[in-house]
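thoughts on these tokens:
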Amino acid sequence: MSSSGASGSDSCNVSGDATNEESDLSSYPLWKYVVKGDKMSGGGSNYTWQCKFCKQIKSGSYTRVKAHLMGLAKESRQPKRPPLPSQSLSSETSLSPTSYAKKRKSDNPITKAFDIKARNNLDAEIARMFFTGGLPFNLCRNPNYISSYNYAATNNIPGYKPPGCNKMRTTLLIREKENVEKLLEPIKATWREKGVSIVSDGWSDPQRRPLINLMVACEVGPLFLKVVDCSREVKDKDFIASLLNDAIEEVGDDKFVVQILTDNAHNCKAAGELIEGRYPHIFWTPCIVHTLNLALKNICNAKNVSNNEEVYDECHWITEVHGDALFVKNYVMNHSMSCHAKEDETS
């Protein structure tokens, strides 16, 4: 029989073979809650069927029937949005004895003038974005975070929607990169006149990955070139020399480069000699800070050996002071309450 509860455009032949329906009910019991129709062309186990509860005519397999009856349809899988804190509080206090007084207080001219309710709702929306996205609270101190909301508050942009993921990682990222490169052009223009120094420094990030920074220093100011992840590389003289050579080529002309600065490690010194051999007008300069660091490290770790007795007698107190300071530093860094107290004193 044809469905009489649906319109002509939604009607379908939902009559079927009674014998086949009885055999299907034993294996697929949910078929009894729909009126099963004809099998659809194209193979598979797709049928037209009509729900006995909502009278909707749909098509699909037994899995679609199960999803429809159990409320697992796509439109019902959307998570319910919980109310904001301000909305929840307003609904809870609506029946309280003091709700009338609070309502009068919220209806005063000052509250309406500053639109306190809308401000509270916006604060709750921003806070929920932080909580659900796992964003660090320090992001609130970012000046760009503050300026973005200030711009939105002072400019009327009807129907504005924030950029999506694809636009953020493609169009906006490329546009910002082009803007930064344009802002750096005045600095790069001075390289031809005064010359530059290429500075490299190795360090480790919180994931303990060995990284090498490459920067260009000139009279106007430093400029960051790039950072190289050396996790799968052997940091020998040839590898470091290749990084320095790439940095020289990235500057544009090797005639602009006056010197290269690295630390005093043996591989860095050997890499500097390779660069000096390839570019006779470029000379290698060791880092003075690293030199002083190594010197102070040797002084603070004076050893009492036979050929060092005189120096140890004069400088062993430095080793003791260094050990005490290191103990205090480790204690503070390993106790969160001490760190918070120190932050409160310095802020």
Remarks:
- Residues 1-11 have pLDDT under 50 and may be disordered.
- The CA atoms of residues 79 and 191 lie 57 Å apart.
- The domain at 194-295 is CATH 3.30.420.60 (Nucleotidyltransferase; domain 5).
- DSSP finds 14 helices and eight strands in the chain.
